[in-house]
Amino acid sequence: MAKYITIEGTSTQLSFEHEESFSLVSFQNNGVPEAPIDGKQYVRKSAAWSEVDFEEIDSKIDDVEDALTTEIQRVEEGSTSRDLTLQSNIDKEEAKRVAADTILDTNITNVDGESKLRDTTLQTNIDNEESARVAADSMLEVSKENVIDYGPSGYMAIVAQDGQSFEFTSTPDFDFFRLRGLAYKYSGSEPLGIVDIEGDQSNAAIIAGKAPNDSGGNPSGIAFRLNEHVTTVIHPNETATAMESGDVIYWSGDNGVGYMLKCNPLPELQK
User: Fold this and answer.
1) Is there a contact between 158 and 168 (Cβ–Cβ < 8 Å)?
2) Top mean-pLDDT range of 44-48, 127-131, 158-162, 262-266
3) Does residue 31 surpass a pLDDT of 70?
4) Alpha carbon of residue 241 to chain centroid
5) Cβ proximity of 184 and 228 under 8 Å
6) Are 166 and 151 a contacting pair, CB within 8 Å?
7) Global pTM?
């Protein structure tokens, strides 16, 4: 059986492949009037038809899109400008650092060169000073050879009391410098020129300018070691001599004519 549906007063036949499952539904107008038929476009708004100007909407959309595009371009241009500025600053900073590194390297090179020059100059001065000292030593040796008076043949040189010259005595025999005992500060009333002797049976004391007693009659070389600090005259023509414990005084003379002399300390002797 054919099925029909009426729409706006017109009856239209419907065809269905599965007629057994079809049920007719009636649609009613519910009092809503049709939109004006004037070629314009309308939408429902507040239970009435309202004209829609899609061209104006499209225009506004275009304006929004243009404004958005302009803003995007402005932001991108600003970002690009900032990026360029930042890159420029980075380039300038890098250039400054490269220049500073170059200056620093130059300064280091200059300082290193100056240091090497100073080292070379110092070494040259040291070499010159050493050469000058060697030359001076050579001249001094030559001068000594030229000015030293070696004295008469067969005599022995002894440093004089002033420490600036030599005195000469006859060559000693094997008995020369015969250590006889210990010397001490004189215990009597004489202030200078006498020292007490211990350990020598022939001499209880010795006097400046007077030969010590000797059983063989040869006082030359008789010596005494000081066992304490003594300041006394040991040569009749000299002032008092300060002597320390360990110093040695001995008689030097030829044929009984001589004087006492002071020499370097000998190994310590017990009193």
Assistant:
1) yes
2) 127-131
3) no
4) 53
5) yes
6) yes
7) 0.35
What are the structure tokens assigned to 208, written together?
């400046």
Written as six digits, the tokens of 187 are 């215990």
- Helix (H, G, I), strand (E, B), or coil: what is residue 31? coil
- Joined tokens for residue 79: 């970002």
| CA neighbours closer than 13 Å in the CB half-sphere of residue 212 | 31
Q: In 3D, which of 30, 35, 59 has the Cα closest to residue 45? A: 35
Question: What H or E segment, with its residue span, contains residue 129?
Answer: helix 54-147
Q: Is the pLDDT of residue 102 over 70?
A: yes
Instruction: Please say whether the beta carbons of 225 and 183 come within 8 A.
Output: yes
Tell me the two tokens of residue 36: 């004006």
Beta-carbon-side half-sphere exposure of residue 44 (alpha carbons within 13 Å): 4
In which band, very low, low, confident or very high, does the pLDDT at 230 lie, cut at 50, 70 and 90? confident
Dihedral of CA atoms 235, 237, 239, 242 in degrees, nearest 10, equals -20
- Strands, DSSP E only, in the chain? 3-7, 10-14, 41-45, 48-52, 155-159, 166-170, 178-185, 194-198, 205-207, 222-226, 230-232, 241-243, 248-254, 257-263
**Radius of gyration of the chain, Cα coordinates, nearest whole angstrom:** 68
Q: Which residues pair with 12 in a beta bridge?
A: 5
| Residue labelled with tokens 């022939």 | 202
Helix (H, G, I), strand (E, B) or coil at 19: helix
**pLDDT tens, position by position, 120-159:** 999 999 999 999 998 888 877 766 556 656 666 666 667 7
Looking at residue 21, what DSSP letter applies?
Answer: G
Is residue 204 within 8 A of residue 197, CB to CB? The reply is yes
Give the torsion through C-alpha atoms of 256, 260, 263, 265, to 10 deg.
110
